[in-house]
Amino acid sequence: MSARPALELTALTAGYRDVPIIHDISLALAPGSITTLIGGNGAGKSTLLRAIYGTNRWFSGQIVYRGEDIHALEPSERLRRGIAFVPQGRCNFPSMSVAENLKLGCYTLAARLHRPRIDRVLSLFPMLRTKWSSAAGNLSGGEQQVLEIAMVLVTEPSLLLLDEPSLGLSPKMQAEVFAAVRDIAAHGVTALVVEQNVHGALLVSDTAVVMELGRKFMEGPAASVRDDPRIREAYLGGNIKETIEA
Ligand SMILES: Nc1ncnc2c1ncn2[C@@H]1O[C@H](COP(=O)(O)OP(=O)(O)OP(=O)(O)O)[C@@H](O)[C@H]1O
Ligand SMILES: [Mg+2]
C-alpha cells in the first residue's frame, strides 16, 4: 500500500440533527478504485455518503481527503476540491434538455471551462450527444442516470459518490451504468457506489463494504465478500441481521 488513500475515514460518526445514525466508520479508499457499499434498507448507506459530502450532521471522527480533514467544510467547498455526489433518486431537471442539464452541472466553473468540460463528458458518453436536444425527462432511466453522472463529472471530481445509480433500471441499463462507472475509474477517479444490485456491483468493483445498523459489518476485496457465506445467505433472501446475531 504505497499511495495515500483517496479518502480515509477514521471513526466517523454522523447523522441528522441530534441523532447519530452511522457509528465509528473507518474506511480507506485506494485512488482510482471502485468500492461498493451494500447493506439493507436503513443501514445508513446514504447517510455515509451524505456525511462524506457534508449535507448532514457530523458528530465525531475524521474525513481525510487529500491529506486534510474536511469534516468542517461546506459541501460547496468539498465539491470545489473534487468530491462529487449523485444522490439517490432522479436528480436532473426533466423539462430541460440534455444540453441545458449539462450546462447547469457547470455552474460552479468559470465560463471558459464549460465547453471543454462538456465536450469531455460527451466523448465519454456519446449517447448524450445523440440526445443533446431531448428533454432529460424523455430519456430512459439508464440514460438519465448517465446524464446525472455526467452533470457532476463536468467538475472533474477525483472522488465520485453515487447513491444507487442502478435502482429501477433494466439489467441491460444496469450493465451500462456499471460500465460507465468502470470507464470513469479507469480515468483515475475514485468511486464509492451504494448498490442494491449486490451481485452486479460486486462484479465490477474492487472492494466491498457491508453496512448494517449504522456500522461497518464487513469489508474486503469484492470477490471475497461475494464468496462469503454470510453475504450469500443475506442477499439470497436471508436476513443479514440474523446472520450477525447468529
Ligand atoms: N433526513 C433524515 N433525518 C432523520 N433521519 C434520517 C434522515 N434520513 C435518513 N434517516 C434515518 O437514518 C437511517 C439510515 O437511513 P439511510 O437513508 O442512510 O439508509 P440507507 O442504507 O441508505 O437505506 P436505503 O437502502 O433504504 O436507501 C434510517 O433509520 C433513516 O430513517
Ligand atoms: Mg439510501
CATH class of the largest domain: Alpha Beta
The fourth-level CATH homologous superfamily of the largest domain is P-loop containing nucleotide triphosphate hydrolases
**Termini gap:** 34 Å
Please provide the count of β strands.
Answer: 10
Number of helices: 11
The whole-angstrom Rg is: 18 Å
The proportion of strand residues reads: 25-35%
The number of domains: 2
Strand order of the largest sheet: 6-7-8-3-9-10
What name is given to the CATH topology of the largest domain? Rossmann fold
Largest sheet: 6 strands, mixed
Bound ligand species: adenosine-5'-triphosphate, magnesium ion
Q: Tell me, what's the shape? A: globular
Name the poorly predicted regions: 238-246
Mean pLDDT: 91
Structural class: alpha/beta
Based on the coordinates given, report the CATH architecture of the largest domain.
3-Layer(aba) Sandwich
Secondary-structure element order, as H and E? EEEHEEHEHHHHEHEHEEHHH
Helix content class: 25-40%
